[in-house]
């Protein structure tokens, strides 16, 4: 047996020091993690299991993605069956039925005005694809001078150069600041604790922040602006729910100036806030929206960009033998990802999961807001089955308190939560029960009560 054929270094006792060093972990404090790994090696339904067999309640749907719950049999079977019958097929200049079937199902789920879907392998690729579609669309319409992109502070739009350029999370940008896309500007974020702390659902204050777009239009001139991209609810930065009327105002201003409005629905897509897509819940219709994660419940890497009627048509000009859009990924519409997505959509439909967040929302909200008054809690906010607790930062040690809560939750309370800065974020699988909601907030309360 050569080295590579050794059995996994993952044993019930954990990982060997040699076995743990090779993996350069993404978005992780590698040294800290490797000193005391937080490992899961199996999953089912609402739970992960550690190598030594502890059952961990998943309050984050993995990474905002396992919306149908873990290892659901119909999805697992579809992937296994397809792996044995169509391992791969190109979608450049060839096709396979699953990709067409899935695109039709997705367009039906979105409903009008959406008519086409472009497949990618991740949310980051979906964002970069959406930005390229926007630029190319304007060029196809004779408005090639529209090259400016507007994102938003605190926005997370993945990690491609396009995504970090329009994104607004400083840590993700500053190292690469010399290499970001030119011609990008940002709207202000909508977070304001003085006005909106402890809001339940959409905060009342803040719609006027959308008027900042008019200021940017006045500064740059509408004729130079291709698109505005925002998350309907900012997720990764710590669940920032849009103020009432804010997205509608962005929509109006974009329409007025011929600017495409892109919603990044990589988190809000597929039932997270009570409708299949966030824009349906929030009542503002974008021109383009990006999805990934929940599209197949996180099982096989996949993303999809939805475009409204007219966008694809604008590209369909010139000789019929010519490629209309020079963009795509080897794995766009990969058969395994498509099969997983089709099976996932069946599960969502059969179990009513895409509207379940709306049914559970008030129970979820009450559970979250029961933590008001617990020490160090300075804000609680929620929409659908998303929620966040913001903690007072320790002087000179931003993030330390929430990190400690994350670690304690995992080791002492068998609970998986996410943290960013001093915010703890929740997005459980949509199959969660009321009893499990009680468990999440009960366990979290105990954690917070023990943290200085
Ligand atoms: C809104 C949003 N856009 C894009 C992405 C990037 O997705 P991925 O990590 O699949 O590239 C994420 C990931 O969390 C996201 O939340």
Describe this structure in words.
The structure is a single chain. The protein is α/β, with parallel strands linked by helices and 452 residues long. It is built from 17 helices and 15 strands. Strand 1 and strand 2 (47-49) form a beta hairpin. Helix 15 runs parallel beside helix 17 (434-449) and helix 16 packs across helix 17 (434-449). The longest helix has 18 residues, at 123-140. It folds into 2 domains: 12-67 and 354-449, Aspartate Aminotransferase, domain 1 (Alpha-Beta Complex); 77-351, Aspartate Aminotransferase, domain 2 (3-Layer(aba) Sandwich). The strands form 3 sheets. The chain has a 7-stranded mixed β-sheet, sandwiched between helices. Residues 1-9 have low confidence and may be disordered. Pyridoxal-5'-phosphate binds at residues 64, 122-124, 127, 156-158, 231, 235-236, 264, 266-267, 292.
List the helices and strands and how they pair.
Blueprint lengths: L16 H5 L8 H6 L6 E3 L2 E3 L5 E4 L2 H4 L8 H11 L13 H14 L3 E7 L2 H18 L7 E5 L8 H6 L3 H4 L10 E4 L5 H4 L15 H9 L4 E6 L15 H12 L2 E5 L13 H5 L5 E4 L11 E6 L2 H5 L19 H17 L4 H14 L7 E7 L2 E6 L8 H14 L1 E2 L1 E3 L2 E4 L7 H16 L3
Parallel strand pairs: 3-13, 5-6, 5-7, 7-8, 8-9
Antiparallel strand pairs: 1-2, 2-3, 4-10, 9-10, 11-12, 12-15, 14-15
Helix pairs in contact: 4-14, 5-14, 15-17, 16-17
Brief synopsis:
With 452 residues, this protein is of the alpha/beta class.
List key phrases describing it.
single chain; 452 residues; alpha/beta; Aspartate Aminotransferase, domain 1; Aspartate Aminotransferase, domain 2; 7-stranded mixed sheet; 4-stranded mixed sheet; 17 helices; 15% strand; globular; disordered N terminus; binds pyridoxal-5'-phosphate
């Amino acid at each position: 047996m050569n080295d590579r054929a050794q059995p996994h270094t993952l044993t019930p006792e954990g990982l060997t020091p040699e076995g743990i060093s090779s993996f350069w972990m993404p978005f992780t404090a590698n040294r800290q993690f490797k000193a005391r790994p937080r490992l899961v090696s199996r999953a089912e339904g609402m739970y992960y299991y550690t190598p030594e067999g502890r059952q961990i309640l998943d309050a984050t749907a993995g990474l905002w993605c396992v919306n149908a719950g873990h290892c659901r049999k119909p999805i697992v079977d579809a992937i296994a069956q397809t792996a044995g019958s169509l391992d791969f097929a190109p979608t450049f200049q060839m096709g396979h039925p699953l990709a067409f079937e899935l695109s039709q199902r997705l367009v039906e789920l979105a409903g009008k005005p959406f008519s086409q879907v472009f497949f990618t392998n991740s949310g980051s690729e979906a964002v970069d694809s959406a930005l390229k579609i926007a630029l190319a669309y304007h060029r196809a319409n004779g408005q090639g001078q529209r090259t400016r992109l507007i994102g938003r502070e605190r926005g997370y739009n993945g990690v491609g150069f396009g995504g970090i350029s329009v994104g607004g999370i400083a840590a993700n940008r500053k190292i690469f600041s010399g290499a970001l896309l030119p011609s990008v500007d940002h709207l202000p974020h909508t977070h304001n604790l003085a006005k909106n702390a402890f809001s339940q659902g959409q905060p009342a204050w803040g719609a006027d922040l959308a008027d900042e777009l008019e200021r940017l239009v006045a500064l740059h001139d509408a004729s130079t602006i291709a698109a505005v991209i925002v998350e309907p609810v900012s997720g990764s930065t710590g669940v920032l729910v849009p103020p009432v009327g804010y997205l509608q105002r962005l929509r109006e201003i974009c329409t007025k100036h011929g600017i495409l409005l892109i919603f990044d629905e990589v988190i809000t897509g597929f039932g997270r806030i009570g409708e299949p897509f966030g824009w349906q819940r929030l009542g503002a219709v974008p021109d383009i929206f990006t999805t990934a994660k929940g599209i197949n419940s996180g099982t096989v890497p996949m993303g999809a960009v939805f475009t409204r009627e007219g966008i694809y048509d604008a590209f369909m000009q010139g000789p019929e033998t010519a490629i209309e859009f020079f963009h795509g990924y080897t794995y766009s519409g990969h058969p395994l990802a498509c099969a997983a997505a089709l099976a996932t959509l069946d599960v969502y439909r059969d179990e009513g999961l895409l509207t379940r967040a709306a049914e559970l929302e008030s129970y979820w909200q009450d559970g979250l807001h029961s933590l008001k008054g617990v020490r160090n809690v300075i804000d609680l906010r929620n929409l659908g089955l998303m929620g966040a607790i913001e903690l007072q930062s320790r002087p000179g040690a931003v993030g330390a308190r929430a990190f400690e809560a994350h670690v304690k939750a995992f080791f002492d309370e068998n609970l998986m939560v996410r943290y960013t800065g001093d915010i703890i974020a929740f997005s459980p699988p949509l199959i969660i029960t009321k009893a499990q909601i009680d468990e999440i907030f009960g366990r979290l309360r105990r954690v917070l009560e023990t943290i200085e």
